[in-house]
Amino acid sequence: MRAQPLRLCPGDDLRSAIEQAFQGQGAAFVLQAIGSLSVARLRFAGRPQADEMTGDIEILTLAGSVSPAGAHLHMTIADAEGRVVGGHVAPGCIVRTTVELLAAVLPGHVFSREMDPATGYPELVIAGARCAP
Length: 133
Prior knowledge:
Layout (H helix, E strand, L loop, with lengths): L1 E7 L5 H8 L5 E17 L7 E17 L2 E9 L5 E6 L4 E13 L4 E6 L4 E6 L7
C-alpha cells in the first residue's frame, strides 16, 4: 500500500478529478478528505437521482474506492447553517476553495464492477477475492 495525498483546486469536479488522478494506478481507496464545495450532488439511499445543494458547503468526510471502472464515493457535508447530510457522490460536485485528500494506492490489486443480481447494482469485484461470508 502506498499513501497518496492529493489537493483539488477551485472549480474542479470532485468525482472526475479523483478518477483522473488515480487513472492507470489500478486500485485505490480514498481514506479521508476535507475541504469545501460550491455545489454538492449526492444520491441518498434508495433514490434513483442525485439531489443538488449549492452555497458554502464543507466536506466533513469522503471515502470510497477508485478503479479503472470508476469511483464509488460516499461523503458527508455540512451547509452554512451546520445541517449535515451524506450520501453517494454524483458527478457535478464542484470544489469551492480546496479539497485535501489522502488515498491508499494498492499496487497488484485489480478492482472492477459487475452487476450483482442480489443487490441490483454494479458492485466491487476484487480480482482473486470473493464476498466475505
